[in-house]
Write a structure and sequence with these properties.
Distance between the termini of chain A: 45 Å
CATH topology of the largest domain in chain A: Dipeptide-binding Protein, domain 3
Shape of chain B: rod-shaped
CATH superfamily of the largest domain in chain B: PAS domain
CATH class of the largest domain in chain A: Alpha Beta
Shape of chain A: globular
Radius of gyration of chain A: 23 Å
Number of domains of chain A: 3
CATH architecture of the largest domain in chain A: Roll
CATH architecture of the largest domain in chain B: 2-Layer Sandwich
Number of domains of chain B: 3
Helix content of chain A: 10-25%
Largest interface: A-B, 27 and 17 residues
Structural class of chain A: alpha+beta
Oligomer: heterodimer
Number of strands of chain A: 21
Strand order of the largest sheet of chain B: 2-1-6-5-4-3
Radius of gyration of chain B: 51 Å
Number of helices of chain B: 9
CATH class of the largest domain in chain B: Alpha Beta
Strand content of chain A: 15-25%
Distance between the termini of chain B: 21 Å
Order of helices and strands of chain B: HHEEEEEEHHHEHEEHEEHHEE
Largest sheet of chain B: 6 strands, antiparallel
CATH superfamily of the largest domain in chain A: Dipeptide-binding Protein, Domain 3
Helix content of chain B: 55-70%
C-alpha cells in the first residue's frame, strides 16, 4: 500500500518462460501490449500499482478523463458545472452510454461507484476525502458536494481510480474476476497460465468503436519484452520507459514524452541514522545524483526537487548546508528492485561513491514484492522507487508527507507541513495555493526525506504497424488506446525486418 | 504611310501608359493590401501572445505545465499555428508534440526578418518575450509557428482580389477615358465638317466652335478660303487677259502669211514685168486670200467674244457626261459610247466652256461618223486625256492646222472648221492641247489633253 505516489515498477519478474505465440498471424490481428505485471486488482478502489491502473483504464471509464496534454475532458460526462463557492459540482451524463453487458450507465451507478471509493475497503480513499455528499438527481445528473472547494478534484475524477461500475453487478463476488465496465475494451478472459488478459473492442463505446478489435495484455519482464519485440511478437512496450538510445528503436517507433514521475531514494525517519535531520541532509547531498542519472538514464530530466517539471512546486530548490557534518558509523541499506535492468551496476556505483565519501552503504537488490512489503511496513532505511502521479497536482505527492497519513513512507511529522497542505486544499486562489505548496515543499526538501534522482522521460517503443499512439505526460496509464490503430495490412514480422 | 483617325492616334498613344500605369497601380495597391493583411494577421498573433504574456508568466512562475498546455492549445487553435513556450531555450510547453517537452528548442530555419517576424521556407515564426508587469521573465519566450502556405493563402487571396478589383477599375476608367477622348474630339469633327463644307459647298457661316484654338483655325481656314477664292478670281482674270492676248498674237501670227500672200498677189497683179497669165492669176487670188483673212478674223472675233474662263476644281467626268447627254438629245441615230477610267477626275476647268468644246467635238464626230462615236477619259502621268473618236472618213491631216486656225472651209456648211477653231481656243484657254490623230475606228480622233490636280 503506497500513499500518494504510485510505484512505477519497471520489471516484476524474470525467468518467465516465453511461449512463442504468433499473435500477428491471427486471422483478426490482436494488438499485443507487454505489461510488467498482471493487475494486482481489477477493482478501481483497490488499485495502487501502475499495472492495475493501466488495465483498469482500458476496461473502465469515469466521468472525466485526461487528454494527452492533461486537459480534462468529459468521458461519461457530457458536461459539468461548479457552484460559485466551488463546493458543488454537477455532472450531466452523456446519452446512450452503456456497460459492456448492455445495461445503460446512469447517475446512480456513478454515485454508487464514487461512494465505494469513500468506503473503508477503498485504498484510494485519501483522494476523495474532500467529498461531503454524492447524490444522483436523475438518471443523467449527478451532484457532488465537497467539504471545501478543492480545485484539483476534477483531476481526481479524471484519474484512474474514479471509475464507474454497474451498481447492480458489483455485489457479485466474482464480479472482478470478469469485470464489467464501460471503457473502450471489454474484458473477455484472464489466462493465468499464459499470464495474459484478453480484451475486445466495445462496440457501443460512447466515443466510437475502438480501432483495435482485439487486445492482449501480456505479462513479461523487460528483457523478455525486448526479445518479443525483436521477434515481432508484440506491438507495444509502453510499460517500460526505455532510454532513447536503446537499439530496439531501430525496429519500431520511438514515441517520447516526459512523464509526471520522480525517481527517488526514500529515507525512513523511523530508521536510524535517518532519524537525524543532519544525517539525512548529508546523505541527500552525498548520493551521486547526476552521475547516476547520466549513467543509467541519460535522457531523463534533471530533478530540481521532488515535484516533476511542469507542475507547481517543481521550481522549489533548497541548498542544504552540510559542511559541518560527518557520515554516521552505522551501515545504511538501500533497497533497489532486483528486476531493474542495470541494478547490479547501480549497486556498484552507489556503494563506491558513498564509500569514497565515508559512508557505509550497502545496496540491496531485492525482488519487487519483497521491496514493496518492506515499503508498506516501513521496514527499509532507504529504498529506490519511482513516484508516479494520479492527478497533475502537487497535492497528490505532498499527501505523502502528512503526519496522519498512514502511507507516509518517510514517517515525517511536521505540523507546519500539515497545516500548509490543509490550508492549500481549501484555497481556490491559484497563486495562494502555489505559495502554500512551495512553502510545504521547501520544508520537505529541508527535511531531506527524499533523494530526488531524476524525472524520467518515457521513450515508448511501438511497432511500425501502430498508428496514432499518443503518449500522456501524466503516465502511460492514461494513454488513450481507443484511438490507436493497428494497420491491418502491416504484418509485424515484415515491419520489423524493414 | 497609313493614316488613322485622331481618336485612334490619341487612344493608341495613351494605351501603353494607361496599361502600364494600371498594372503598376494594381500591383502596388494589391501588394499594399496583402502586406497590410499579412502584417495584421501576424501582428494579431503577436498581440494575442503579448496580451496573454502576463498570464503565461504566472503559469511559468507556477510551473503549471498542464494549464500552459491547455492555453497554448487554445492559442494554437485560434491562430491555426503551432505554439511553443520556451524557458532557457528549453521547451516548457508546446501545442504540437509532447515529445519536445523539456528538450532544447530547435527554432525553424528562417531566412528573412520582417517587422519582428521571421520567414522560413515553410513557416512564419513570431517570437514574443514573456513579460509580466513590463518586466521580461528570464529567457521565456513564446514562438507562434504558422505554416507559410496557409498563412499566405489569405494574403495571396487578398492580393489577387485587390489586383482584379484594381484592374477592373482601370478598365472602367479606360473606357470612360475613351469616351472622354471621343467627346473632347467632337469639336475637331465639327471643324472638319466646317472646312469640308467650306470647300464643297462654300458655306462660310456656321455655329462657333467651343474650343478657342479650333475656332481660330476655322476662322483662319475661312479667311484663307476667301482669300484663295479672290486669288483664283484674280488669277482667272489675269489668265483670261493673257489668253485674249495670246489669241490676238495667234491671230496676228496666223494673219501674217495670208496678208503677206495678199500683198504678194497684189504686187504681182500690178507688176507689168510679169506676164499676163501671172498677173491674172495673182489678181484672181486676191479675193480668195481676202476671204480667207476675213474668215480668220471672223473666227477669232467669235472666240474672243466667248465668256471669260472661270476655272474650278471640279469633276471633269460630270462635264463630259453632260455634253454627251446634250448631243444625244439632239442626235440619237448614231451611238455614242463612253468609258471613264475613274468616275472622279478632278481637273481645274470651266465646266460651261469645256462642255461646249466637247459638244463641238461630239457633234463633229456624230456628223462624220458612219455609225458610232466613242468617248473615253483616261489619266496618263499628270494629264487627263479626253478622246473623241468616230468611224467616219476622217480628215486630211495636212489641213488640220488650217481648220484649227479657223481658215479651213467646211464641206458641211463650214461648221466643222469653225467648231474646231472654237474647240481649240477653249482647250488652249484651259492650258491644254487639242491633238488630231487617225482613229482606230477608221475616222477622226481628237484628244483634249488637260493637266490634273
Amino acid at each position: 500500500m503506497f500513499s500518494g505516489g504510485r510505484i512505477l515498477f519497471l520489471v516484476i519478474s524474470i525467468g518467465f518462460i516465453i511461449q512463442s505465440p504468433s499473435y500477428a498471424q491471427s486471422p483478426s490481428p490482436a494488438y499485443v501490449k507487454a505489461i510488467y505485471s498482471l493487475p494486482l486488482s481489477l477493482d478501481p478502489i483497490k488499485m495502487n500499482d501502475t499495472a492495475s491502473l493501466a488495465v483498469g483504464n482500458l476496461i473502465y471509464d469515469g466521468l472525466l478523463k485526461f487528454s494527452p496534454s492533461l486537459k480534462i475532458e468529459g468521458a461519461l460526462a457530457e458536461s459539468w458545472s461548479s457552484s460559485k463557492d466551488g463546493k458543488t459540482l454537477t455532472f450531466k451524463l452523456k446519452k446512450n452510454i452503456f456497460f459492456h453487458n448492455g445495461d445503460p450507465v446512469t447517475a446512480a451507478d456513478a454515485e454508487f461507484s464514487l461512494k465505494r471509493a469513500l468506503s473503508s475497503e477503498s485504498t484510494v480513499r485519501k483522494f476523495y476525502d474532500s467529498i461531503k455528499e454524492i447524490r444522483s438527481v436523475n438518471d443523467s445528473t449527478l451532484v457532488i458536494e465537497l467539504n471545501f472547494p478543492f480545485p484539483p478534484f476534477l483531476s481526481v475524477l479524471a484519474g484512474a481510480t474514479a471509475k464507474v461500475l454497474p451498481k447492480n453487478k458489483v455485489s457479485d463476488p466474482k464480479f472482478f474476476s470478469s469485470p464489467i465496465g464501460s471503457g473502450a475494451f471489454r474484458f473477455t478472459s484472464l489466462d493465468s497460465k499464459k499470464k495474459e488478459i484478453n480484451l475486445v473492442a466495445f462496440e457501443k463505446y460512447h466515443s466510437g468503436v475502438p480501432k483495435i478489435s482485439r487486445m492482449i495484455l501480456k505479462e513479461t519482464t523487460e528483457d523478455e519484452a525486448l526479445k518479443l519485440a525483436r521477434n515481432s511478437e508484440i506491438h507495444d512496450l509502453a510499460n517500460w520507459p526505455l532510454t532513447e538510445s536503446d537499439s530496439i528503436f531501430s525496429l519500431g517507433q520511438r514515441i517520447s514524452s516526459p512523464v509526471a514521475s520522480t525517481w527517488i531514494i526514500g529515507l525512513n525517519t523511523h530508521k536510524a541514522p535517518f532519524n537525524k535531520l543532519k544525517i539525512r541532509q548529508l546523505f541527500k547531498v552525498s548520493i551521486p545524483v547526476d552521475e547516476f542519472r547520466k549513467t543509467f538514464y541519460p535522457d531523463s530530466i534533471k530533478a530540481n526537487g521532488y515535484v516533476p517539471n511542469g507542475l507547481t512546486g517543481s521550481q522549489v530548490k533548497v541548498e542544504l548546508k552540510v559542511s559541518d557534518i560527518r557520515p554516521p558509523k552505522e551501515k545504511i541499506t538501500i533497497a533497489i528492485p532486483r528486476e531493474l535492468a542495470r541494478g547490479q551496476e547501480m549497486k556498484e556505483m552507489i556503494e563506491k561513491a558513498m564509500t569514497s565519501k565515508g559512508w557505509k552503504v550497502e545496496v540491496n537488490l531485492m525482488p519487487w514484492d519483497q521491496l514493496m512489503e518492506g515499503y508498506s511496513k516501513k521496514l527499509h532505511q532507504a529504498f529506490l522507487v519511482a513516484m508516479n502521479m494520479d492527478y497533475p497536482d502537487a497535492d497528490f505527492l505532498l499527501k505523502n508527507f502528512e503526519s496522519d497519513n498512514p502511507d507516509n513512507f518517510s514517517g515525517l511529522k511536521n505540523s507546519k507541513i500539515d497545516l500548509l497542505l490543509k490550508t492549500s486544499r481549501a484555497t481556490q486562489d491559484r497563486k495562494q495555493r502555489e505559495t502554500y505548496y512551495k512553502e510545504a515543499l521547501r520544508l520537505i526538501e529541508e527535511s531531506a526525506v527524499t533523494v530526488n534522482l531524476f524525472h524520467p522521460r518515457a521513450n515508448y517503443w511501438v511497432s511500425k504497424c501502430v498508428q496514432n499512439f499518443k503518449p500522456n505526460i501524466l503516465s502511460d496509464v492514461y494513454i488513450d488506446y481507443s484511438k490507436v490503430v493497428l494497420a491491418s495490412d502491416c504484418e509485424t514480422n515484415k515491419v520489423v525486418q524493414q | 504611310m497609313k493614316s488613322m483617325s485622331l481618336f485612334k492616334h490619341v487612344n493608341s498613344s495613351l494605351n501603353p501608359y494607361r496599361w502600364a500605369i494600371s498594372v503598376l497601380a494594381a500591383v502596388l495597391i494589391s501588394g499594399l493590401f496583402a502586406g497590410i493583411s499579412l502584417e495584421s494577421r501576424l501582428d494579431t498573433d503577436k498581440k494575442m501572445a503579448e496580451s496573454l504574456a502576463p498570464y503565461l508568466a504566472t503559469l511559468i512562475e507556477s510551473s503549471d505545465r498542464p494549464e500552459l498546455l491547455r492555453v497554448l492549445q487554445s492559442i494554437a487553435e485560434a491562430t491555426k499555428s503551432d505554439v511553443v513556450l520556451t524557458q532557457d531555450e528549453t521547451v516548457f510547453a508546446s501545442s504540437r508534440s509532447l515529445e519536445e517537452l523539456d528538450r532544447k528548442f530547435i527554432k525553424p530555419k528562417t531566412f528573412v526578418r520582417f517587422f519582428d517576424i521571421d520567414f522560413g521556407n515553410n513557416e512564419i515564426v513570431t517570437t514574443t518575450n514573456i513579460k509580466k508587469s513590463g518586466q521580461s521573465l528570464e529567457d521565456s519566450k513564446v514562438y507562434i509557428i504558422s505554416p507559410l502556405l496557409p498563412s499566405m493563402e489569405s494574403t495571396l487571396g487578398i492580393f489577387l482580389g485587390a489586383f482584379v478589383a484594381s484592374i477592373l477599375i482601370s478598365l472602367f476608367s479606360a473606357r470612360q477615358m475613351r469616351k472622354a477622348i471621343k467627346k473632347a474630339l467632337r469639336p475637331m469633327d465639327q471643324l472638319h465638317a466646317e472646312i469640308e463644307g467650306m470647300i464643297t459647298d462654300g458655306h462660310l457661316e456656321s455655329e462657333p466652335i467651343q474650343i478657342r484654338e479650333l475656332e481660330e483655325i476655322r476662322n483662319t481656314v475661312r479667311s484663307t478660303k476667301t482669300a484663295l477664292d479672290n486669288a483664283k478670281d484674280q488669277l482667272a482674270e489675269t489668265k483670261a487677259k493673257k489668253l485674249s492676248s495670246d489669241a490676238y498674237k495667234r491671230l496676228i501670227h496666223d494673219l501674217h502669211n495670208p496678208v503677206s500672200a495678199l500683198r504678194q498677189m497684189a504686187s504681182l497683179a500690178h507688176d507689168e514685168t510679169q506676164d499676163l497669165e501671172t498677173q491674172t492669176e495673182a489678181a484672181n487670188s486676191i479675193p480668195r486670200l481676202a476671204d480667207q483673212i476675213l474668215s480668220q478674223v471672223t473666227s477669232a472675233k467669235k472666240n474672243l467674244e466667248q465668256d471669260p474662263i472661270a476655272l474650278r476644281d471640279l469633276n471633269i467626268v460630270d462635264c463630259i457626261k453632260d455634253g454627251i447627254r446634250q448631243v444625244q438629245t439632239l442626235e440619237n441615230s448614231k451611238s455614242i459610247s463612253a468609258s471613264f477610267q475613274d468616275e472622279q477626275i478632278t481637273v481645274p476647268h470651266d465646266p460651261l466652256l469645256l462642255k461646249r468644246a466637247i459638244v463641238n467635238l461630239l457633234e463633229n464626230g456624230v456628223e462624220a461618223a458612219n455609225s458610232r462615236v466613242r468617248v473615253s477619259v483616261l489619266r496618263k502621268d499628270n494629264n487627263t486625256i479626253i478622246k473623241v473618236c468616230d468611224d467616219g472618213a476622217g480628215m486630211d491631216e495636212t489641213k488640220v492646222p488650217v481648220y484649227l486656225q479657223g481658215r479651213g472651209q467646211s464641206g458641211k456648211a463650214n461648221r466643222q472648221a469653225f467648231g474646231l477653231s472654237s474647240t481649240n481656243h477653249i482647250v488652249r484657254s484651259h492650258g491644254g492641247k487639242l491633238i488630231y490623230r487617225k482613229s482606230d475606228l477608221g475616222g477622226s480622233s481628237f484628244e483634249i489633253r488637260l493637266g490634273v490636280i
